[in-house]
Write a structure and sequence with these properties.
Layout: E1 4-9, H1 10-21, E2 28-32, H2 34-38, H3 42-51, E3 56-59, H4 62-70, E4 77-79, H5 88-93, E5 97-100, H6 103-110, E6 117-121, H7 134-148, E7 153-158, H8 170-188, E8 195-199, H9 201-206, E9 214-217, E10 239-244, E11 247-251, E12 256-257, E13 263-264, E14 269-274, E15 291-294, E16 297-302, E17 310-315, E18 324-328, H10 338-345, H11 349-354, E19 360-365
Parallel strand pairs: 1-19, 2-3, 2-9, 3-4, 4-5, 5-6, 6-7, 7-8, 8-9
Antiparallel strand pairs: 1-10, 10-18, 11-14, 12-13, 14-17, 15-16, 16-17
Helix pairs in contact: 1-3, 6-7
The protein binds pyridoxal-5'-phosphate (PLP).
InterPro entries: Ala_racemase, Ala_racemase/Decarboxylase_C, Ala_racemase_C, Ala_racemase_N, Ala_racemase_pyridoxalP-BS, PLP-binding_barrel
Pfam families: Ala_racemase_C, Ala_racemase_N
GO molecular function: alanine racemase activity; pyridoxal phosphate binding
Length: 368
């Protein structure tokens, strides 16, 4: 038994996917389940996504794709971040669509098996992965040759936004027009581009012009807004992080709390010990800033967040060892959300859920 539990509501996850479908009704839907499904647990989330009728799953690494196949997953699946020596043969054999971001990578994929399914990634301005400028010209030419020879099957062309979470950012229009030109270039070279895709959650919600054939939905499917500036009122958080008080004590005014004594009580109060810390992926930068949910309202974290535990101030509330504490969840019972923790920790809500690690158990609610 773990000291702390992540409760994942699969019914809510499926409801979120359905709500997001309505934003891009004419596009295929890819559920992005990389990084352990943003902390929610890849295999149950992937199964729920398939059950909800998503058209594709997306992951970053080859290993994530192979792990999904090993779990029995069969449908369309794209991976996009490989290094030299990546297990392309296994991926091709497992019917995974592999992304090529350059000519050398394309050749490595082409050599890996029988007519690999390849998607071509163009860098439209994020300057991360993907082929840029003359590299894209070369990738298009190589893909056209290999496709013509029947060596590969090009199944898609895609790119990724830099600032979709800032809908008015000029990068969005720019990247979209670069993408359109790249798709045209591929078609002019005689390659049927397959599925064309550019949008993540934020673009799926705010930018219909970017939907093309498919939208790649990550954060919003987990019920978290891509950014406070991009609210998605139709979705609700899927994950609740909770535990119970491991200790409770009454302390006098002047008592100091946790490493470094970075907080001292200015009055008599009740402290509760919460048995999770940065070993569970709780951000230490939220020390003295975050709150937890307790008995229908919030209690502040006091002092430094430790590896295994943190301390909350329960004031004069009645509290017993074993009482429920909710670190974050949908907010229904007054508890903070992942966004509240992000604000306290100085980061984004993506990182709050994705960093969850270590000694949690995961419990799944809703039909598996
Ligand atoms: C993570 C990721 C996504 C999903 O982005 P969200 O903002 O979580 O919707 C989409 N596409 C790519 C390439 C990604 O790496």
């Amino acid at each position: 038994m773990s000291n702390a539990e992540l409760v994942v509501d699969l019914d809510q996850y499926r409801a979120n996917l359905a709500a997001l479908r309505a934003y891009a009704p004419d596009a295929l839907q890819m559920a992005v389940v990389k990084a352990n499904a943003y902390g929610h647990g890849t295999v149950p989330i992937a199964r729920a996504a398939r059950g909800a009728g998503v058209d594709w799953l997306g992951v970053a690494t080859p290993q994530e794709a192979l792990d999904l196949r090993a779990s029995g997953d069969r449908g369309p699946l794209l991976c996009w971040l490989a290094i030299p020596g990546a297990p392309f043969a296994e991926l091709v054999d497992a019917d995974v669509d592999v992304t090529a971001s350059g000519v050398d990578q394309l050749h490595a994929i082409a050599a890996a098996g029988e007519r690999p399914r390849v998607q071509l990634k163009v860098d439209t301005g994020l300057s991360r992965n993907g082929a840029f400028g003359p590299q894209w010209d070369a990738l298009v030419a190589a893909a056209a040759r290999l496709q013509e020879a029947g060596t590969i099957e090009v199944t898609g062309v895609w790119s990724h936004f830099a600032s979709a979470d800032e809908p008015d950012h000029p990068a969005n229009d720019h990247q979209e027009s670069v993408f359109r030109a790249a798709v045209d270039q591929l078609a002019s070279a005689g390659v049927d581009p397959g599925v064309r895709h550019l949008a993540n959650s934020a673009a799926a919600v705010t930018r219909p012009s970017s939907h093309f054939d498919l939208v790649r939905i990550g954060i919003a499917s987990y019920g978290i807004d891509p950014d406070p500036a991009v609210p998605v009122p139709e979705v609700r958080p899927v994950l609740t992080a909770r535990t119970v008080l491991a200790n409770v004590k009454r302390v006098p005014a002047g008592a100091s709390v946790s490493y470094g004594w970075r907080w001292s009580a200015d009055r008599e109060t009740t402290l509760g010990l919460v048995p999770v810390g940065y070993g569970e992926g709780i951000h230490r930068t939220a020390s003295n800033r975050a709150e937890v949910g307790f008995a229908g309202s919030r209690a502040p974290v006091r002092g430094t967040i430790c590896m295994d535990q943190l301390v909350v101030d329960l004031g004069d509330r009645t509290a017993r060892i074993g009482d429920r504490v909710t670190l974050f969840g949908p907010g229904d019972d007054g508890e903070p959300t992942a966004q509240d923790w992000a604000d306290a920790a100085g980061t984004i809500a993506y990182e709050i859920v994705t960093r969850l690690a270590g000694r949690w158990s995961r419990t799944y609610r809703g039909e598996r």
